[in-house]
Amino acid sequence: MAGPRLPAEVDRAAFDQAGFAFPIPVLDPEATDRYLKRYLEFRERHGPRLQSLPPNQHWQIHSDTHFAFRWIDELTREPAVLDAVERILGPDILVWNTAWFVKMPGDKTFVSLHQDGAYWGLEPMEVLTAWVALTPATPENGCMRVLPGTHRRPALPQSDTFHPDNALSRGQEIAVPVDESAAIDMALAPGQMSMHHLWIVHGSRANQTSVPRIGLAIRYVSPRVRHSSGNRPWAMLVRGQDTWGHFHLTDRPDGNDGYAGEGFHGDIQRRVHEAIAQARQASG
Ligand SMILES: O=C(O)CCC(=O)C(=O)O
Asked: How many A from CA of 101 to the centre of ligand 1?
């Protein structure tokens, strides 16, 4: 019988205490290479559109692609990724959202310090992000940074800056001084991932190197979670079962032929973003 695949690094008590876990090995070199090639092909195909958008609009190509492209759906279901997520969320797991966070050499793209929980409208807190690295993510090329323990005192005030180089759609930024001296750089090798809590303060700096920084952020939720708008957001069941019905479960995509930001993927994004806008209105 095959032995357990659970990575030793993922400890529920440590995650609850710190609000993050890394590095967690999840893809072997062959799989990492395959997904990286797929991403680079995807980028080549959708590149002209991507280049015409400022980083804070790249979500039009880069978000929720797992609903429309089979290879990205497969990445969200990698057994070692789900084994680690299961340690924290339990056996029933949905994917609510995905986002590619990419900083090519020369990009000025950065991510300001923020708390995801402040604007996602998801409760209770059984939500985490797994960030899977397809290239090295280092302090020099702008790996993610977290402020340990900040998830335990939620809801720092946040403002929208709309900075054009901020990869976040509204340039969300913590609006009070934070002590960055305690920040931890979540450096990852290709094929490793980190996990972070819904409310941890995190961000990343620009890429100062010639090494691309390419990763997929996958937002996993327990089916117990609800959206504050009362809407049933779209989600995909990737492990276990959903007996709650708080999400509108979708089928897996059939293939990889779609065009990002348009057609089926464009329709999905419109629905997802309308739901987010409604949730923001509902929460004032
Ligand atoms: O990739 C980054 O630099 C930031 C990612 C992020 O903010 C997130 O996954 O919530």
From this structure: 7
Residue 182 has phi, psi (to 5 degrees) of -90, 0
CA atoms of 203 and 273, how far apart (whole Å): 22
- How many domains are contained in the chain? 1
Which residues constitute the domain of residue 80?
12-248
Structure tokens at 219: 């937002």
Q: What is the mean pLDDT of residues 52-73?
A: 90
Looking at ligand 1, which atom is closest to the CA of residue 219? Answer: 9
Token pair in block for residue 145: 């940074």
Q: Select from 20, 76, 100, 101 the residue to mutate for testing ligand 1; criterion: most ligand atoms less than 8 Å from CB.
A: 101
- Within-domain flag for 5: no
Lowest mean pLDDT among 37-46, 70-79, 126-135, 237-246: 37-46
Domain-embedded: residue 178:
yes
Q: Does the beta carbon of 101 lie inside 6 Å of ligand 1?
A: yes
Residue 218: which CATH number?
Answer: 2.60.120.620
> What does pTM read for this prediction?
0.93
Closest CA to 153 of 87, 197, 120, 122: 197
**Within a domain: 283:** no
Residue 203 in any domain: the answer is yes
